[in-house]
Amino acid sequence: MRRLVPPLAVLAAAAIAALAVAVGIGSVPIPPAALWAVATGGGEPLHQTLVLELRAPRALAALAVGGLLAVAGALMQVLLRNPLADPYVLGLSGGAAVGALAAMLLGLGAALVSGAAFAGALLSTVLVFGLAHGTGSWTPTRLLLTGVVVASGWGALVTFMLAVGPTRQLPGMLYWLMGDLAYARSPWWALAALGVAVAGAVPLGRSLNILARGPLQAAVLGVAVRPLEWGIYVAASLLTAVAVTTAGSIGFVGLVVPHMLRLVLGNDQRLILPAAALAGGALLTLADVLARTLIAPEQLPVGVITAMLGVPLFLYLLHRSRG
What we know:
Helix content is 76%, strand content 0%. By secondary structure, it is mostly helical. The protein has one domain: CATH 1.10.3470.10. The radius of gyration is 20 Å and the shape is globular.
């Protein structure tokens, strides 16, 4: 276990640095000395307001959402034994989007929009699992194909809602679909979900390592394959639902981060899962800084930034792994 400490320490330092950058950069820059003063309970009132009430909650939400998506992506890639799987591959974001857009069309408040998104994600989870299971058992291939079909159905409903929705509501609906942290609520429940997920998954790392080699080999080595697969699916679904509920649909984090970490750190899930939580959180936090500042005073949806960063990075990783 000692070999796990150095890379995790580096990633933890990177996550802390990303948080410091996020709370220090903005329309009113805050120097490091002033940040330290606020962190220790002092500082100017303006700096306290900017850091504690505006920037820190958003930065922590970005850290939590990025970590949730990266951990969910790592779990989905183990479950489906496919390095191209991501948290949205089974239609979870589509179900959440339908729930959130329906709440927006009904004129419900932000809390109810978040609740509707979470309910939609859970509905999609139950629907995909029920259809994939059918009257018998399910396989990763069957689960993946079912998820793709259900995601296409949700996409059709989203398009219909955008077509019939009032013009004045379209900007907010589109921003939610692209992923936006501007209206992220309290980050604490997302951070709590991330902590529980990592704490629960790391002790199962050895079993996950064996499962990644195939269910038959895992069964021969004494792993309870079916309960473990069910647990992975439920955990990844819940993590994705929390992330989507907090910030909307943000792509590429759950795909690129686990893939990148495996190329650098290997395939030990005891290391990959906590590393994904830290690296995904740091990546999304820095991406949100770019979303806030790139065309200031206007703000971009953070999903645009992750797509702009994720596409070339993933193509580079594919080229490197092929070489």
